[in-house]
């Protein structure tokens, strides 16, 4: 059934996600900080571009956002031309960005005060997953609000799950990033060891990727790591932002994250070498 939707933030992830919603037959109004990108999206997918989050949200049943920081989310949701004040009671705001659980809870309260629902729904799967419609979506919020919009999420995701009350999606994304940090560092060390030991690392990966060491990172990043290609994918700057959230939450709840803390410092080294926009697999450059 065709629904009136809005999508705020057409970056690397948001652009294809909003496109999937339009291709599914929904009427999508979009807003992006850079208006030219919104214009290009409309040329590719239809719908309409607006000059503010409020203008996009005014007629929408569900408003999606995918922006890079807590400050950016607050601005598009609560700012002078923010979406929440323009939405009609009964609507739902779904945030797909990665941010702090505290801000997710803050916006859930702000939405409820206006008769709206709020879901924090960060994603995993990267640019390739967004383009292919195979993302994983981790959701925090009220069950009734989640049930009402779950079919929309499955348009660009192969796995969607409600993990608990507001903030639970962001906490789950923190777990995801903690696990990723250790996996990427271990893969980098393994590949570099193979090179030093005189093995053919590509043949090694071909073998061990069929056993217990297999991972998404090995399947999708081993070859590019060996080729020292990093000008794509999830940027180091963004990973450090995400790890900062995880490390801060760990302090709050008393969890020990020694490996995540160490890998975060390794990523700081990559940034210092000018690799802030490199893919996270660039950890291998520290071992050269």
Describe this structure in words.
With 288 residues, this protein is of the alpha/beta class. The protein has 2 domains: 4-164, NAD(P)-binding Rossmann-like Domain (Rossmann fold), CATH 3.40.50; 171-287, N-(1-d-carboxylethyl)-l-norvaline Dehydrogenase, domain 2. It has helices spanning 14-23, 35-45, 53-57, 70-78, 83-86, 101-113, 126-132, 143-153, 168-196, 201-208, 216-226, 236-253, 258-272; strands spanning 4-8, 27-31, 48-49, 62-65, 92-95, 117-120, 123-124, 135-140, 157-164. Helix 9 (168-196) packs across helix 12 (236-253). The radius of gyration is 20 Å and the shape is globular.
Can you tell me the CATH superfamily of the largest domain?
Answer: NAD(P)-binding Rossmann-like Domain
By CATH, the topology of the largest domain is Rossmann fold
Mean pLDDT: 97
Computed CA radius of gyration, to the nearest angstrom: 20 Å
What gross morphology would you assign? globular
Order of helices and strands: EHEHEHEHHEHEEHEHEHHHHH
Give the end-to-end Cα distance, rounded to a whole number of Å: 54 Å
Total individual domains? 2
Could you tell me the strand content as a percent range? 5-15%
Number of helices: 13
Low-confidence stretches: none
Strand order of the largest sheet: 3-2-1-4-5-6
CATH architecture classification of the largest domain: 3-Layer(aba) Sandwich
How many beta-strand elements? 9
- Fraction in helix: 40-55%
């Amino acid at each position: 059934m065709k629904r009136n939707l809005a999508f705020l933030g057409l970056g690397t992830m948001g652009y294809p996600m909003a496109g999937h919603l339009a291709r599914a037959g929904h009427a999508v109004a979009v807003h992006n900080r850079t208006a030219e990108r919104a214009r290009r999206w409309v040329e590719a997918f239809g719908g309409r571009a607006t000059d503010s989050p409020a203008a996009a949200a005014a007629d929408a049943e569900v408003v999606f956002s995918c922006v890079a920081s807590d400050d950016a989310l607050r601005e598009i949701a609560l700012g002078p031309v923010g979406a929440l004040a323009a939405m009609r009671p009964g609507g739902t705001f779904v945030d797909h960005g990665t941010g702090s659980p505290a801000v997710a809870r803050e916006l859930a309260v702000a939405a409820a005060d206006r008769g709206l629902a709020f879901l924090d729904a960060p994603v995993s799967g990267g640019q390739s997953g967004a383009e292919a419609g195979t993302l994983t979506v981790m959701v925090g919020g009220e069950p009734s609000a989640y049930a009402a919009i779950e079919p929309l999420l499955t348009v660009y995701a192969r796995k969607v799950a409600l993990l608990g009350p507001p903030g639970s999606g962001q906490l789950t994304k923190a777990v995801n990033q903690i696990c990723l940090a250790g996996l990427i560092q271990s893969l980098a060390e393994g590949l570099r060891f193979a090179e030093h030991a005189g093995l053919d690392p590509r043949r090694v990966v071909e073998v061990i990727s069929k056993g217990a060491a297999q991972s998404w990172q090995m399947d999708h990043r081993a070859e590019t790591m060996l080729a020292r290609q990093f000008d794509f994918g999830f940027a180091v700057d963004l990973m450090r932002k995400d790890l900062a959230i995880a490390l801060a939450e760990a302090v709050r709840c008393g969890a020990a994250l020694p490996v995540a803390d160490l890998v975060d410092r390794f990523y700081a080294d990559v940034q210092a070498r000018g690799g802030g926009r490199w893919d996270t697999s660039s950890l291998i450059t520290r071992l050269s």
